[in-house]
Amino acid sequence: MTTDPKDRKIEELEAELRQQRRLVQGLQQQIARILDQLAKADGKDKKDKKRRKKGDKKAKLTPTQEEAPQAPERKQPDDTKIKGIPRKQPPAAHLPRSPEHHAAHPGPCCHAPALIQGPDKVIEQRDFHPARVEVRQMRLEQWNCDNCGTTHNAPLPAMALPKGSMTGSLLAWIAYNKCAMHMPLIRTCEYLATLGLDLSSSTVCNAMGHVARLVEPVYDRITARLLASMKILLDGTGMKVLQPGESGTHRGQFAVYCNDELTVFGYSASKHGHYFTEFLRFGQHDEYRGLLVTDAASNMDLLAAREGITRCGCWQHARDNYKNARISAPVMAEEAIAWIGTFFDVEHEADSAGDTAEERLARRKRDTRPLMDGFRRWMSATQPKLDPDEDLYKAIQYCINHQAELEQCMTDGRVPLTNNLAERELGVIGRGRRGFLFAGSDASGHQLAKIYTIVRTCQRMAIAPFEYLAWVLPQLSDLPVNRRKGHLDTLTPWGYRDLISTV
After folding, report:
1. Nearest to 209 by CA among 439, 411, 500
2. Average pLDDT of the residues in 19-24
3. Cis ω on the peptide bond leading into residue 113 (within 30° of 0)?
4. Residue 437 backbone zone (phi > 0: left; psi -120 to 50: alpha; other: beta)
5. DSSP letter at 161?
6. Nearest Cα to 416, choosing from 322, 350, 473?
7. Residues ≥6 apart with Cβ < 8 Å to 355
8. Is beta strand 249-258 parallel, antiparallel or unpaired with respect to 231-242?
């Protein structure tokens, strides 16, 4: 080690110089990365501009090309209408009231007859009482005869789980939490533990299976009522399903079948189309015949070739294809979206007027048919200007390939323009998939489909699902095999609705 001050000074300067060089190298690297990012962004912008110019050039007509008709102007929405519901409103009239009386205390100078009582000041606040767990204790009398030795027992009341330790209300609450609130069963166990009831996850899983077995007759009755209708909207989505005894998961498929009143869910181990034909009873004496509103998925092609089935298309899916084409050809894509928007404007007018199916069909033939003819001419004039690999070309080809299904709405006023109702009903599965992530097995998928059907049908009929399940589960547990079908109708959601409406 050098002790000379000059040498130490030189070493310090050299160390400082090396540090400055490292800083300069770091700054140069940062500048290089920034310039690289700017170059990539600039190249992307140039590519987008080139695509737009390409779309605009193809939008210009040559003397030999046919001019595409312009979409008619749409009516602007009326912004003067009050949207939404005011935030501050009195509590609903159907909620029970628990009155409390608070007496006033007049001063020493206030006495009759100078003191006159006025009307009470009423203050209403919404209250909530948390759930509680209690034990239902039933005492059954027993009488023994000394003469003949016969034992006379009191009749056993209706119970959802005669040999178990859960009442119908607790079973209903577990199923409601899973299929209406989309809570994982382990979280349900944790919440019950805070109330003093310790249940294992396996016990709660067995409870879900028991509820599914009990509601199976009601599920079959809802399915039969749906298949007896003349219109069904169909769609499907997937969910991860565990494979007991094996590692990993596979993709199960939930399908929804619905109409204006009912919603039925079905589960299958894959998305193959033959599961749809099995649910619709194709080849059986009670097979479904009527209108079937679906999207253009390939797994639903088996439904179109069936005799007695009229497959109807979805204009919302067609419009989504044009929305995806906005990047490459924004002008022409917006033109197509405006054309399809005019079809929905006519439907909104029919909804506002409260048209019946016959009146809606007459309105469509009068107002929508000329618009569809104009849109068809627009597609015929626009598609030759595009390359087959462009998104707008594919969107137009979709409408051409499925023209017969898309225009079925012009033959029957009951056919909706979209499959949006089935899409909304599938949102139940999507919310559950986000909450509990997967089903435990294929058997659990079938159980979920049955309970989902009961819960969602109750919600659509403005019935509280928990109250209905707590009422019906004990009765279904005591349901004989030879029970008449007419009596079973009284245990369905619409039978329960008629019951509570008469009370």
Report:
1. 439
2. 78
3. yes
4. left
5. S
6. 350
7. 363, 413
8. antiparallel
Backbone angles phi, psi at 467, to 5 degrees: -65, -40
Does residue 169 sit in helix, strand or coil? Answer: helix
Least Cα distance to 454 among 115, 130, 218 occurs for 218
Per DSSP, the residues of 189-257 read: HHHHHHTT----HHHHHHHHHHHHHHTHHHHHHHHHHHHTSSEEEEEEEEEEEE-TTSSSEEEEEEEEE
pLDDT of 127 reads 84
Q: How far does Cα 414 stand from its chain's mean position? A: 22
Helix ranges (H only) for 145-198 are 168-179, 185-194
Tokens 């989505």: give the residue: 237
Q: DSSP E strands: which ranges in 68-159?
A: 142-144, 151-153
By the 8 A CB rule, do 267 and 443 touch?
no
CB atoms within 10 A of CB 426: 20
pTM for the full model?
A: 0.78
Q: Where are the beta strands (DSSP E) in 86-157?
A: 142-144, 151-153
Kindly list the distances between the CA atom of residue 370 and the CA atoms of 69, 241, 503, in Å, as whole numbers in the listed order: 12, 48, 52
- Residue 114 CA to residue 108 CA, distance in Å, equals 12
Residue with token string 């009146």 = 359
**Angle separating helix axes 330-353 and 5-59, nearest 10 degrees:** 60
* pLDDT given for residue 380 in this prediction: 92
User: With contact defined as beta carbons under 8 Å apart, do 414 and 230 qualify?
Assistant: yes
Rounded to the nearest 10 degrees, what angle do helices 465-477 and 493-502 cross at?
110
Whether the pLDDT of residue 132 is over 70: the answer is yes
Residues in the chain: 503
Coil vs helix vs strand at 312:
strand
Q: Which of 295, 230, 218, 224 is nearest to 260 (CA)?
A: 230
Q: Choose among 167, 195, 211: nearest CA to 476.
A: 211
In this prediction, residues 27-52 reach a mean pLDDT of 73
62 vs 278 pLDDT, higher one? 278
Nearest by Cα to 468 from 487, 482, 451, 483: 451
Q: Exposed, middle or buried: residue 132 (CB in 10 Å: 0-12, 13-18, 19+)?
A: exposed
